[in-house]
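Researcher: I'm preparing a figure for a lab meeting and need a structural model of a single chain. I don't have an experimental structure, so a prediction will have to do for now. The sequence is pasted below. Please return the structure as tokens so I can convert it later.
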Amino acid sequence: MFVKYEVILLDADGTLFDYDKAEANALEKTFNHFNLKYKEECELKNYRALNKQIWIAYENDEISLEDLRIERFRKLFQNNGEKIDLHEFSKIYLSLLAGGIYLISGAEEVCKYLFNKYKIVILTNGIREVQLSRIGNSPLNKYVNQVITSEETGYKKPDVRIFNYAFNKIGHANKKATIIVGDSLSSDIQGGINYGISACWYNSTGEKNRTGLSPDYEIKDLRELLKLL
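Model: Understood. Here is the structure written out token by token.
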């Protein structure tokens, strides 16, 4: 049955923006800034594993976003003999990450198309200053009605309260006319299911879904949304 949607909630990292590329670039440049030895296959691999664990802890309310900024680097350097100012390291890293405007293939085309038909809201768990900078300086900015971050709301996906906040902010109440599109089963899809709205899983890598969650739609390329919606 065809559903007439009015609001599209879009995730940012891994859905519209190539976060992996921005992350790799920012980490290498931050290491260089502090004159630290950097090998992508070692430092980046370790950082990504640690960062993933800490973001999951954040989603599960086990760590604050403020502590997350430092904890991932504390763990990364805990066996490093050099004395590193972790707060300064995090500050430099985030400033470089905020400048990493690398779009997923099809993101601009899709947002431009959707903007003419729906209210477009970016709903992200990412750090506010990073997300606002990247979105604001990207070609997507003119195709987005609202950007809402977990830091702004005090809640994060998949918590239903971030969706309540978003609905109140944009003055929207019809759950049946809303769909969330994102790459994360644990935050985007789980959040959509929790809140009772449609959910579309952007699965660009062909990952197996072993979560037991059942998104309403699954796409491998963002441009599939042009036919789906």
